[in-house]
Each structure stands twice: as C-alpha cells, then as structure tokens.
Design the sequence.
RNA sequence: GUGGCUAUGGUGAAGCGGUUAACACUUACGACUGUGACUCGUACAUACGUGGGUUCAAAUCCCACUAGCCACCCCA
C-alpha cells in the first residue's frame, strides 16, 4: 500500500495551481498599491502566543490546534491563523519605531485540526493584511475598500461585504449582559446549543442556524444600540467613508467573531456559493491585542481570506500555459537541429516544446495540438538540406518556409 | 467530537447472486497525406477500498474496519 497524504492536507496540482498563482499575484499587486509590504513569519510559534491572542476559551485554542512539545521541551503550535505571528514579530522587531503606521500583508498555510469538508481543510491557506498604528476610522474604510478592490480585480462580484461593530471593552460587557437577559426570557424557544452558548458566548446565539433560534432572537437587542459614544461615532464614520466612496456593503448587527481580540469594526465577505462555508474573508479591528501581547499600546486592524474559498469561487480551471512553438523533427539530425533551435528560442523567452523520444511525425503533431502550441516548426531531411523549416500556424493550418535560425523564427512567433 | 452518504481502471461511470467486469474520456501505437483537430483500427481492471461472513456461486447480500465527501460544532 503506497503512503498517502494526511487527512485534510491537500495537493494543489498543475491546472489548479494557476488559479492560486493568480490569486496571490493579484493580492500582491493590489495590496502594494495601498502601501502594504509583505512580511514572512514562521509557521510555528510558541503555543502561548495563540492562547493569549486568540483567546483561551475559543474553539481554535481549545480543540483545533496542532500543538506538540519539541525536543527542547518547548510547547509549540502550527499557526492556526496569521495575525498572532505577525503581531509577535511586529513587537519583537520593534517595527513601530521605524514608522508610526505599519501596513503588512502575508500569505501562507495555516493549520487547524477540524473535520475537513467543502472549503475547509486541516492545512489551509490564508492571505491577510494588517495595519498597526491608526485609530482613525478612515483606515477601517481603506482596508475594506482594498479588500473589495482585490475581489474586483479577480472579476468576482459574489462575495458581498457585511460590517458590524462589536464595541469596545467599555460597552461590550453591557451589551452582552443585555443580550443574555433577553435570551434568558426566551430560554424555552432556544436550541440546546444556544442554551449552552448563553453562558459561554451569548452573541453566538445570534447567528445560530436553527430556525427556532432565528425566530426567538428576531427582536433581540442589537449591539449597535449599545455602543458607547466613541464606538458609535467610529462606526458611523466608517459607514460614511464607505458611502462616499460608493463601496457597497450591508450592516449585519448579528455578525459575530470567533477570535476574542476583535473590537469595534468587524466585517466579513460572504457568499452563498460555498455550502455552509459562507465566509470568504473576514477581519476587524483589534485595538487591545498588541498591548495584550506585551507590545506598545497601538491599535490594529486586519483581515484574512481563505485562499481555498476564493479559488472555489473562481469559475472553471486555471488554464495551463500554452507553448508558443512546438518543434517537430523527423530523423536524428533534424532532432539535433530542433534541440539547438529550441534552446536558442528559449533563451529569447519563448515557450518551446519538442518530442524527446524520437516519435513519429504524426505523434509529434498530435502532441503539438494537445499542448495547444500556437505554431509548429517542422524539420525533416529536406528542410535540413535547404536550411528552411516549415512553420505551421496551428489555428488555420497555413504554412510558410522560414530559415532555421533564431531571429526569423522569433520574428514570426512575435507577430500575430 | 457527532451525524448522513459513498467506495469498481489514470478519469467519469455501467453492473442489482452465475457476464470474457459494459460504455465514454484519457494515454500509446497505427490507417487516411512526411503535417494535429474529424473519422476508423488496435492496446490498456487475474480486478471491483481492506478484512471477515452467507452461498454450489459475491463487484453484486451481511458485518467490521479504513478512506473520501457533505453536514453539525466552529471557522477563512
């Protein structure tokens, strides 16, 4: 029995990988327009970093982390998300002394021990961005606009923006208490899960999928009515900036976050096309996190998107690169000439293919067609004798004789 | 961690107790013209996830295991 891969760890094969490259290249291009620089941090960190930042009581920390003890008796964890490691690096490398505003983006694998399903894997990939040092709500809007810009560039209209505010350490506890009180009144109408949630995290009851809970929480108090003045003003400003820049969004006051560090603005890009995994990208403000991790008292905001989920939205296959030229050679001497010309043209930057096995001309033509080559250069004994190869345009079958040298071939390949 | 569904070649699949395990695609070679697509021919599963059981007879029925998918929980 051959060795198989690990459950929930996938191979990304040619044909699919082109889509990933496009997503990554688009992210780099768009994020850099907005002044973000890439940062690369390790995929493992001390376990403590994640329990401190994400929150001890969250599902991620409680049951989904790939944690183990290394040979030096250190507790380490394969990162389940990107923000914690980036913030650790930010603090450790004292990036804030270089510039009061830091804009970073990252991409790479994350690991969560969950049951795999559509759009959810144990090794999955995120592209994320973080801004540290700006409290002004314009940066919230900026980040959202950038995210929308990214999806536009990919030609996707589907994920739509939803925003909410979770308040701050001042006003959230008050809201939480108000919500809990409301839920207590309706205890009978709630599902078992929600009754449990009432204690651990009452906000979760708001996005429960059980129909009965939806009805029961229909008139539940909204966070947005419980924001303190500062949070309320902040959220209003974010919306104003989105309106002014004509960025489409909707307010979803029932939106909840799974990580503890979020404050004030939170958002998700959601789609109905991915089964139960509706969130394609999500993020928010985390004003207390950096200080919590032992860094300076600086605000932050960021998001992460799931690359697998974005790839699922990109219709069709990523298509493979097609050769500019296939050189079909008939006979040993012609094969040598084909190889020489191929090397020359590759040096000029053309994608050139040929047959390595000395197969029949027919086979070679078939392969040229299969690969989708735009042109095929045919070289046999006659062509070798005259020094003129036949260049065939595969689309219409027309042929012209051309000298067997790099520059005339390069010229022919460049036009049309 | 909990449910449901499914497991036949490189792929999509037929098969419903006795068949040489269909068919299509892919791949390879060949015919038509030293030159692709269309057409045609030939080849490609001692084998039906693994292990047991029932039966004269199992890919087909039963059980267990494993894997995959989807959903719940939760999340990007």
Sequence:
């Amino acid at each position: 029995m051959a060795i198989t891969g690990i459950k929930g760890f996938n191979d990304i094969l040619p044909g699919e990988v082109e889509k990933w490259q496009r997503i990554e290249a688009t992210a780099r291009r768009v994020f850099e327009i907005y002044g973000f620089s890439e940062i690369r941090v390790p995929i493992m960190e001390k376990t403590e970093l994640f329990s401190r930042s994400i929150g001890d009581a969250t599902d991620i920390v409680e049951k989904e982390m790939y944690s183990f003890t290394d040979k030096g008796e250190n507790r380490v964890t394969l990162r389940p998300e990107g923000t914690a490691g980036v913030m650790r690096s930010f603090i450790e490398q004292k990036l804030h002394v270089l510039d009061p505003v830091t804009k970073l983006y990252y991409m790479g694998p994350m690991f969560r021990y969950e049951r795999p399903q559509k759009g959810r894997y144990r090794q999955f990939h995120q592209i994320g961005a973080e801004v540290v040092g700006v409290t002004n709500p314009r940066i919230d809007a900026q980040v959202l606009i950038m995210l929308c810009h990214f999806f536009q560039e990919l030609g996707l209209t589907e994920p739509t923006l939803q925003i909410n505010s979770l308040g701050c350490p001042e006003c959230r506890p008050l809201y939480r208490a108000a919500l809990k009180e409301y839920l207590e009144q309706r205890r009978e109408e709630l599902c078992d899960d929600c009754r449990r949630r009432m204690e651990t995290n009452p906000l979760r009851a708001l996005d429960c999928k059980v129909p009965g809970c939806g009805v029961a929480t229909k008139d539940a108090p909204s966070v947005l009515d419980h924001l303190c003045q500062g949070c309320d003003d902040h959220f209003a400003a974010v919306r104003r900036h989105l309106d002014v820049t004509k960025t489409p969004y909707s307010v979803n006051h029932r939106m909840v976050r799974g990580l503890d560090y979020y404050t004030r603005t939170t958002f998700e890009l959601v789609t109905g096309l991915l089964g139960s995994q509706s969130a394609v990208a999500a993020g928010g403000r985390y004003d207390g996190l950096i200080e919590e991790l032992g860094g300076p008292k600086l605000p932050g905001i960021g998001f992460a998107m799931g690359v697998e989920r974005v790839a699922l939205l990109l219709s069709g296959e990523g298509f493979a690169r097609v050769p500019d030229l296939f050189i079909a050679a008939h006979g040993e001497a012609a094969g040598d000439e084909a190889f020489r010309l191929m090397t020359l043209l590759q040096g000029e930057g053309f994608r050139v293919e040929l047959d390595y096995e000395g197969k029949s001309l027919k086979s070679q033509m078939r392969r040229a067609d299969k690969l989708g080559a735009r042109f095929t250069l045919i070289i046999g004994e006659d062509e070798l004798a005259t020094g003129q190869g036949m260049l065939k345009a595969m689309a219409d079958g027309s042929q012209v004789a051309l000298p067997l040298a790099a520059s005339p071939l390069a010229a022919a390949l460049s036009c049309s």
